[in-house]
Amino acid sequence: xxxVSTRTKKTSFExxxxxxxxxxxxxxxxxxxxxxxxxxxxxxxxxxxxxxxPAGEYQFRYLxxxxxxxxxxxxxxVPNSFGTENSIVEVKxxxxxxxxxxxxxxx
Length: 107
What we know:
By secondary structure, the chain is mostly beta strands. It has one helix at residues 100-106, and strands at 2-5, 10-16, 23-27, 40-41, 46-51, 56-64, 68-70, 77-79, 85-91. Strands 3, 6, 7, 8 and 9 form a five-stranded antiparallel β-sheet that branches. The protein has a four-stranded antiparallel β-sheet with strand order 1-2-5-4, with no helix packed on it. Strand 6 (56-64) and strand 7 (68-70) form a beta hairpin. The longest helix has 7 residues, at 100-106.
């Protein structure tokens, strides 16, 4: 599951793989580095990571035990150049709100 928080400006990745020994989030936002974003496993076997990513649309996958690539079931997929598919996450950051008082002062 992928969630983007406009409040914390972080993107949270979560995948249930209790049998896995390691899981990394790998994508265009980290130049497809298999080591840049390791996830942490909780007692229930769910791997989690929250990371700040600039606004944009990114392709990513999970690298499990440095051997198996899987997609996030909560996202849409696009074909990749390897004949498989990548997950997509769109990071949108909230626009700053302007109150009427602040807007009036600027005039």
